[in-house]
Design brief:
The structure is a homohexamer of 331-residue chains. In chain A, strands 14, 15, 16, 17 and 18 form a five-stranded antiparallel sheet that branches. A four-stranded antiparallel sheet of chain A has the order 1-21-20-19. The first copy, chain A, has a four-stranded antiparallel sheet with strand order 2-3-4-5, with no helix packed on it. The first copy, chain A, contains two helices and 21 strands. Chain A starts with 27 loop residues before the first strand and ends in a 7-residue tail after the last helix. The radius of gyration of chain A is 18 Å and the shape is globular. By secondary structure, chain A is mainly β. In chain A, 62% of the residues are buried. Chains in contact: A-B, A-D, A-F, B-C, B-D, C-E, C-F, D-E, E-F.
Chain lengths: 331, 331, 331, 331, 331, 331
C-alpha cells in the first residue's frame, strides 16, 4: 500500500452480517460479540474503546488496554479480517522525536484518522496528571510520532475529521473536568498545523433527549456523505442508580461542521446484552471507530462494552442517513 | 361488563402458580419471569413499573414504556390471562376535556384503581418539568380523561385507596425533590373531589430497617382486609456502591389509614435474579399492582425488574397478613 | 375596628421617609435600620423575616424569633407607628380548635394577609419534621386558630393573595426539598375553603437573571393595582463563596395571576449594608411584608437582614410599576 | 484439639485445586465458586466477607450474614473440608462477661485470628451507631467473649497479626467516616492487653496504583514468612459509574510491620466472573481469610463476592512472594 | 511555684469584669475583646483557639498561630494578668525524647491540663497528613515532651479531665473525617498510661438542639464541681449559607463522666459581635480554655473568634450550674 | 502618545505611599481604600477585579462591572492619577470586525497588556454559556476589536506576558470546570498569532502551602526583571466555613516561563480589612493589575476586594524579589 493514497475508501473485506430477519433497527450487533476478550493479552485487565482502520490489505488499530494495575495504556494491533485481532503485548512507546514535549502519562479512548498522508492518533492523554487530548501520527503502526497535546486540560474524546475543512485541520472534543465529569458537550476546534488550535465552536449540547441528557462525546471519525458529515456519538443518561452510555447519530454541515443539520432523538444502540451490562463499568456502549466501504455503503462500528471488551455492530450509510434525517424523530 | 359494578372482586382467571416445594417464603416468583420483555413493542427501550386491573372478562393495564429516546410514556394494554399482554404501540393521549390543564409532560410508574364508577389512573407527571402526581380516569382504557395534578411538585408514587374513607378520596404519595431523591417517606392526603387535596399526614418514614433505609414509596393499590389495609411498598437501601430496591408490606388502620398497625422488618422480595439484577437500573424490584381474587385470597403481584421488564410474583392475603403481623419480626 | 371591614386600605400613619436627594433607585432604605434588634426580647437569638399589617388604629405583626436554642418560633407583636414594636415575650400557641391536626412543630418566615373577614397567617411549619406551609387565622392577634397545613412537604414561602380570585383562595409557594434547597420556583395553588388545595400552576422559574439564578420565592402579600398584582419576591445568587439573597419585583395578571405580565431583570435591593452583610446568615435581604397606603401609593417594605434583624425600605406603587414595566429592563 | 497449641500450622485437609493449565496468574479461582450461597440459611439475604480457621480436625468460621431486614449479623459455622459449610441458623450472641461494655449493635466483615491460646474475632461493630472495631475471643466457636471495642469510631477492617510483635498485640485497621467512606488507608496500632491501644502508624496509603486508588483495607490475617509478613488487602477503584473492589498483596517488615518492604502494583484478582459482578453490590471481591498449610505452602483464600456469596481462590506462599517482590512491578 | 503542687486552685489575679447592669445572661463578654490581635506576632496570620493556665504566679498558654503560609503552629506565651500576652515568636518545637515517634506535622486547637505533676498539652496533630490528637507535656512551657498520638485518625478536640477517674486518665475527643467534617459527637476514652487508650464511650451526640445540630466538640478542661463535671462545649449549626459555631454547657457524672446529668438546650454565647462575625472564618466562637478561681467561683473563658483572634468572656461556676440544670431548659 | 511606543516603562505619576513606619511587610495597603466604590456608576452592583495601564499621559483601564441584574460586564475607564477613576456608564461593545466570531456573552476579571503595538485585553468570556478566555485589542480604549476566544471552555484568568517569548505570544490561564471550580492550576500556552494556541505546559499547581491549597490563578501581567518574570497570583484556601482568596508571588524563568525559579510559601496579602472581608463575596483579595515605574521600581497593585470594590496596595520590585527568593521561605 502506498501510504499517501487514501486508504479504505473501498474495503472489500469489510466484516459484515446482514440485518437479522425481523429486525427493523438501523443498527444490529455482530452475532459473536465480543470480538476481543478482556484478557486477550497477558497484561490486560480489559480491552475496549479502541480504534481500527484499514491498513495495507488488512486492518490495524490502536487499542485501549487497562492493565492489571488498572493503568491505561495504548497498544497497536493488526487483523486480516477486522474481527480476529492480534494485539501487541507491549504498549505503544511514543517517539517524541527529540522535541521537548510533555511525556505520555496515560492513554485511553483512542481514535485513528487518515488525513492526507498519515494516520493521526488522538487519545485522552495526561498533562501533569490531568486529562487532555494527545496527538501522534504513524504510517506503519510501529513508530508513533508524538506531537504537542492539542488543548489545555481538561478534555476527552478528541476526534479528527478525515480531511482539512476550509484549509484547517478540524477536531471535535469534549471539554471536561478533573474527575468523572457530570457534564459534557461536543466542541469543534481548528488548526493550521496540528500544533496550534483555535476558532473553537460549540457543536452540540447534551440534553437533546434523555438518553443523552447528562453528557455527550464524539465517537468514530465522522463519515463524509453528500448530505453532510455523519457523526456517531455517545450520550449518557443518569438513572436513579448509575449511568447508561448509549450511542446515536447526527448530521453536520460539510463545510461548516459546527452546524448540526439533523439529529434523531433516539439512540441507535443502548446497553442491553450481558456483555454491555456486566463488566468493570456496567451499562456502557461506547463507539470509537467505524469501517466504511464506499462501494457498498456498509459500516462496521466498533464499540467498547462495559468498559471491558470490544464489540461490533453493523449498519449502512443510507440507513443511518435515513435514521438521522427521519422527519418524525428530530430532536 | 357494567362499568359501575365493582370489577375484580372475584377473579376466576387470576394467574397463579403454587408455592414451590421447600419454599417457606410468603412470596414466590413466577417461574417464567419476565412476563413482558423490554422490546415487546417496537418503540420501547423498556417496559416496567406498570399497573394492571381486571377489565371486562379479562384484564387491562397502563404500562410505563420508556422509548428509545428514553422519554417516559404510558401505554394501554390488554390481556386475557394477565400474563400475555398486548400493549398498544401508541402512547396514551390524555383528553383534557377542554379544560385549561397543564399538559401531560411525561409519565412514569402508573397505578390504576377502580373507585365507585371508573378507573382512576395516577402517575408521575411533569408540571413545568418537575415531577408530581398526574390524575386521569377511564372506563374503557381507550379514552383517558385528564384532571388536575393532585399536588405541587415534587412528588412520586401516588397510590389511591380503592374506596372513599370518611367521605374523602384518599391517596398515598411520596414527596420528593427535583432529582433522584435521596430521601422519601409515605404521606397520605384526602380530597372531596379528586381536584383539591389536603389533610396531609405522614404514614411511614424510611429507616425502619436497613432494606428500607433510604426511602420508601407505596406500591400497589392497598388491599382491604378485615385486619386493615394491606400495603405493599418498596424500600431502598444505599449500599457502598449503589441502590437496592426491594419490597415489603405493612398494615394500615381501616378508617384512619395514616396509622400503621403492623409492619414486618424484613423485605418480601429483593432483587436476586438476573432479570432483577441486570438492566437499565441494576438491583430493582418495584411493585405497582396486585390482582386479588377474593374467593381464594390469591394475589398476583406485578413488579418492574431492573427498570427494564415486568415480572410477577404470587402470594395470598393470609400469608401476607401472617407475615406483616408476625410478632417476632415487627419493626 | 370592625374586623369585617377591609383594614389598611388607607394607612394615614404609614411610616415614611422621602427618597434621599440624588437617589435614583425605586427603593430606598430607612435611615435608622434595623428597626428591630436581634435581642429585642429576652429569649431571642434573632428576630427577622416577619410580617406586619394594619390593625386597629395601629399595627400588628407575626415575628420570626429564633430563640437561643435556635428553635424557630412565631411571636405576635404590636406597634403604634410600625417602627417601634412591642413583641410578646412568649411565642404564639396555636389553637387547634379541638381538631385532630398535626401539631405545630416549628415556625418561620410568616406572612399575614387580611382576606374578607380575618387575618390569615401562613408560615413554614414542620409536618413530621419536614417543612410545609402552616395555616392559621386570627382576628385579634391573641388567639390564632390553626387549620390544616396547605400542602405536602416540602414547601416554604406560602403567600396568600388578599382576595379570592375566580372564587377561590389563592396561594403562592415555593416547593423545596428537605434541606437548604438548591432550587426553587414560585408556584400558585387554589382552594375553595383554605383546607383542600389544587389547580397548581408554575408562575415564575429561577434563572431569569443572575441575582435570582438559584431560587426565588414570593415575599409580601401581592399588591393589587390596576395594572396587575405587584409581586415583590426574593432571589438567590450562588457566588463562588456562598449565597446572596436580594429582592426584585414582577407584575402578575389580575385574574390569571399565574401569568407574568412584566418583570425587571434587576434587583430592587441587594445586601450592601453592614446589617445586611453581617449576622447569622451573611448577605441576606428577605422581604416578608409591605404596608401600602392607597391614598398616597406609599409603600413600607419589611425585610429580614442577615437572618438576624428586621429592616424597612420605602417606595411607591407607581415607582415599582415603572420599574417592573421598564421596557429596557425586561427579563 | 488442645486449644493452647498452635492450630493450623499444618493443614493436611486444606482445600486445593492445582493451577489450571495455561494460567500464569499467581492466583486462581475455585472451579465451583461460590462455595456458600446467599440463601444457605433461612434468614439470610446474603452470606459473604467471612473468616475461616482450622479448628479441631476440621474448620470453623465466623460468617457475615445479612438477614432479610438487611441487618448485619455474625454467625458461627463449621466444616470438615473448608468447602462445605454448616452455618448456624442463629447469630452469635456475644457474652459480655458481666462487664459494662457497649452492646453489640451490628457486625460485619469479621476476621478470626489464633494468638497464643485463643481465637480472637475482630469485626466492624457499632458504637452508638457508628462503625468501629469490635473485639471478642472464643476457644470453641460456641461462647464468644466480648471485650472493649479497640478504637473510637469510625473504623473498619480490623485485622490482627497472629502473634505479638515487640511484646504487643498488633492490629491493622482502616479509619473511616460515618458513611460509605470515599477514602481509606491502612494503619497499625499496638496494645499490651487487647484493651488499650496506641502507637498508631500509617502502613500504606491508597493510590499506589489505580486499582487501589480510592481506598484500601487489610484482608486476611497476615501470613508470616521469612521474607516478612505477607499481607493480602483489598483496594477500590472509582470508575465513571461505581466502585470496583479488587485485591492485591504487599510484604511488611517482620519486626516493624508498619514498614512496607515490597508491593506489586497489579491486583491479584478483580471481579470478572458473574458471581463477582452481579449481586447486592456489583463488582466486589473482598478477601477476609486465608488458610495456609505450612507443609506445602498452599493457600486457600476466602473472599466475599458482590457482597452476596463466599468464594475461594488458591495460591501458594511462594507464588505470592514472587508476585509481591517482582522487581518490574513494584509500585 | 512548685510544679508538683496543684496550680490554679485559687487564682487571685483572675481577670474579671462584673456582669453588666441589665444583663441577665449567665455569660458576658470582656469589654475590650479581642484580647489578642491576629497580628500580635510578626509571622502570624491569626491567633485563636488557644489554651491558658495558671503558671507560676502568672499565666502561661499554648496558642494556635496560623502563619502567613496558613500553616498551623503552636506557640507558647506568657502573661502576668491573663489579658496581656507575650507570645513567643518561634513555634514550639516538640522534643521527642529520642523516641521513634511520628513527627509533629501541624498543630491546632490546643488544650492544656494540669494533671498530678505536669501540664499535658493535647492538640490536633497530623499523622501521615490526617488529623488526630497529639499529646505532650511540659513543666515550664519551654520544653515540651512529645508522646504518642492518642488515637488513630481522624480526630479533633482532644480534651483531658484534670484528674484520673477510676484509676485512668480520661480524654474527651471528637472523631472526625479527613476534611471539614459534617458530623461530630463527643466521645470519651481512658488510658492507664497516656499511651494506650481504650474503653471508648459516646458521651453526647450532636442534634440536641439546633445551635448544636451539625456537630459538637468539647471545649475547655472540664471543671470539677460537687454536682458533676461542668463541660463547656461548642456546637455548630448549618444555616442556609454557612456554619455558625456557638458554645453551651453540660454536666457530666463525676465518676462515670460519659453519663450526662444535665444540659441546657440554649447556647451560652453565639457569634454576634463584629470580631466574632468577621474574619478568616465568619461566625465562630470556639472556647478552648477556662480559668477558674475556686475561692470566688469566677470563670474567665477563652475562646477563639472568627478563627482570627482570642477573646474572653466571664461567668461563675454557680451561674453555669444554674444554667445547665435549669429545669425548663433541659434538652 | 504614540501607540506604537512602549507605554508605561517610566510612570512618573505612579500612585504611591511610602511603607508605613513599623511595617515590615513587603506589601502595604493604600490608606484610602477602596479607590472605587461599588456604586460609582449608576448601573453598578459592584466594581472589582479590574485592570489598569498607563495610557497617554494618564491611565486607562478595563473594569469588571456587575450590574444590578448581576450580569457581568466590562467597562472602560480613565484616570489622570490612577486613583480617581472615571468609568464609562456604558459597557464595552466589542467590535467583531465583520468576522464570524462567537458573540460576547459575559465578561469578568479582565487583564490588559501592551504588546508591541497595542493593548490586548483578555477576560473570562462565555462561549455557549461556558467560561473561557476572550481576547480583544484596542489602541484607544474606545474601540475594542474582538478576536477568537483563545481556548475551549472551561477556563479563567487568562494573563498575557508583555512580550513574545521564543517568537510566540504567551498566555497563562487556569483551566476550570463549569461551576465554582474546586480546583485550579496555572498553565501556559503559546501562539504565533493570537488566534491558534498550543504547546501547553503546567506552570504551578495549587497546594504548595495552605493559603493556596485549593486553587491558584495568575494575577497582573508578569513583570520582567533581570531575575525572571515576577508573577503575582491569587490562591484560595478552603476553610471549615468558606473560601479565603489571598495573593502571593513567584518568579518564572525568563525564556522558559513555565519553569518556576522561586516562590515564597507565604501570602503577600490576605483579606483582613472590612472592605476585604465584607461584601458580595466575603474574604477575597484578587489582584488583576500592577503599575510598575521602571525608574523607581515602585509598584501599585490593583486588586478586587470582596468581589465588590477596587483597592490598591504598594510595593517595589526589589522588595518582591527579596520576598520571592527568600531562602528560608521557599515552598
Amino acid at each position: 500500500m502506498s501510504v499517501t493514497s487514501q486508504p479504505g475508501a473501498v474495503i472489500a473485506n469489510l466484516p459484515w452480517q446482514d440485518r437479522p430477519a425481523g429486525c427493523n433497527n438501523p443498527l444490529w450487533r455482530y452475532s459473536d460479540n465480543p470480538i476481543i476478550r478482556r484478557d486477550q493479552i497477558a497484561c490486560a485487565n480489559s480491552i475496549f474503546n479502541s480504534a481500527v482502520v484499514p491498513f495495507g490489505g488488512g486492518f490495524a488499530g490502536v487499542f485501549r488496554v487497562d492493565n492489571k494495575a488498572r493503568l491505561m495504556r495504548l497498544h497497536a494491533g493488526f487483523s486480516d479480517d477486522a474481527i480476529n485481532w492480534k494485539i501487541n503485548e507491549e504498549p505503544i512507546v511514543f517517539d517524541t522525536q527529540g522535541k521537548n514535549l510533555p511525556r505520555f502519562e496515560f492513554g485511553y479512548d483512542p481514535r485513528v484518522c487518515w488525513i492526507e498522508d498519515r494516520y493521526w492518533v488522538t487519545w485522552c492523554n495526561g498533562l501533569s496528571g490531568e486529562p487532555t487530548i494527545g496527538v501522534a501520527w504513524t504510517r506503519d503502526f510501529k513508530t508513533f510520532h508524538q506531537e504537542e497535546n492539542a488543548f489545555l486540560p481538561h478534555n476527552r474524546n478528541g476526534v479528527m475529521f478525515p480531511r482539512k475543512i476550509g484549509g484547517n485541520f478540524v477536531m471535535l472534543s469534549r471539554p471536561s473536568d478533573n474527575g468523572h465529569t457530570p457534564f459534557g458537550d461536543i466542541y469543534l476546534s481548528q488548526s493550521p498545523d496540528m500544533t496550534f488550535w483555535g476558532m473553537h465552536r460549540c457543536v452540540m449540547k447534551a440534553g437533546a433527549s434523555p438518553w443523552q441528557g447528562l453528557k455527550i462525546g464524539a465517537g468514530p471519525i465522522p463519515i463524509e456523505t453528500d448530505k453532510g458529515w455523519l457523526l456517531i456519538y455517545h450520550g449518557v443518561l443518569r438513572s436513579c442508580n448509575g449511568y447508561v452510555y448509549s450511542f446515536g447519530a447526527a448530521l453536520l454541515d460539510l463545510e461548516r461542521p459546527w452546524k448540526v443539520i439533523a439529529a434523531n432523538k433516539n439512540y441507535l444502540l443502548s446497553p442491553q446484552t450481558p456483555y454491555e451490562c456486566i463488566g468493570d463499568v456496567p451499562n456502557v456502549a461506547f463507539p470509537c471507530a467505524a469501517l466504511h466501504d464506499e462501494a457498498t455503503g456498509r459500516l462496521a462500528i466498533y464499540y467498547g462494552a462495559a468498559d471491558t471488551v470490544v464489540c461490533m455492530a453493523f449498519s449502512t450509510v443510507q440507513m443511518l442517513l435515513d435514521f438521522v434525517t427521519h422527519p418524525d424523530q428530530q430532536v
